[in-house]
Amino acid sequence: MGVCLSAQVKVKREGEIFHCSNLKSFSLSELKKATRNFHPNSLLGGGFGSVFKGWIDENSLVPAKPGTGIGIAVKRLKQSGLPDHTEWLAEVDYCGQFSHPHLARLIGYCLEDKHRLLVFEFMPRGSLDNHFST
Question: Over the stretch 8-24, which tens digit does the pLDDT of each residue have?
Fold first, then answer.
């Protein structure tokens, strides 16, 4: 997959979503299937929202059975205290630009009603920030 450059992202006003060739637009129902309906056993952690492990087919990116396909980490943002739409789009744009073996790659997003989710590749040993000590 290529890198999404800022120039390719087109945001006109709130409610309009952009199209970027390397990011998949997931539906909420697809992400529910991929994470077993955001099952508590799939919970990886949280902060500004909850992160759930899920599975998608490597080629089609459709939900897959647990343990098959590729692992994903789905960040479901809290609806209370939700960043405004422009901030969320900026995060998608920013994360969509990077590709590095030690950073979780953004695969796609979901924007449905008030639901805002980010879909990252799952990194079994954690991303680089997990290995820094302060």
Answer: 444 434 344 555 557 89
Question: pTM of the predicted model, to two decimals?
Answer: 0.76
Dihedral sign for Cα 120, 84, 22, 26, please. Answer: positive
Model pLDDT for residues 28-64, shown as the tens digit of each residue: 999 999 999 999 999 988 766 789 999 999 999 999 9
Structure tokens at 23: 């990011």
Read off the amino acid at residue 62: V
Q: How many CB atoms lie within 10 A of CB 21?
A: 10
| 13 vs 7: CA distance, rounded Å | 16
Instruction: Identify any residues that bridge with 72 across adjacent strands, giving them in sequence order.
Output: 54, 121
Using DSSP's 3-state secondary structure scheme, residue 130 falls into helix
Question: Where do the domains of the chain lie, and which CATH numbers do they carry?
Answer: 17-73+80-122 (3.30.200.20)
